[in-house]
From TrEMBL:
Species per Swiss-Prot/TrEMBL record: Streptosporangium canum
Family: Belongs to the Bfd family.
Transmembrane regions: none
Name by which UniProt lists this protein: Bacterioferritin-associated ferredoxin
GO molecular function: 2 iron, 2 sulfur cluster binding; metal ion binding
Keywords: 2Fe-2S, Electron transport, Iron, Iron-sulfur, Metal-binding, Transport
Alphabetized Pfam families for the sequence: Fer2_BFD (PF04324)
Domain BFD-like [2Fe-2S]-binding: 18-66
Length: 75
């Protein structure tokens, strides 16, 4: 079943935002990689393939990594 934006909005979800169009990798997939232990764009690439083609998404991946680091509590 193909869900439209309106259908997703009604359900309280938002559509996945693509980080890497070449490999159809979403922000959620990148976040899952980071939650799984990825700490670099290279590690995200090795897991998802994002950044392995044209590499225009690497800056976005780095920004997501940076935001995730900023959210970690400091001791």
């Amino acid at each position: 079943m193909c869900l439209t934006y309106a259908m997703l909005h009604e359900r309280g979800s938002s559509p996945a935002m693509y980080v890497c169009v070449c490999r159809a990798v979403t922000e959620n997939e990148v976040h899952d990689c980071i939650a799984g232990g990825a700490k670099s764009a290279r590690q995200v690439r090795d897991i998802t393939g994002a950044g392995g083609d044209c590499a225009s998404c690497v800056r976005k991946i780095c920004a997501i990594l940076k935001r995730s680091e900023d959210l970690l509590p400091t001791a």
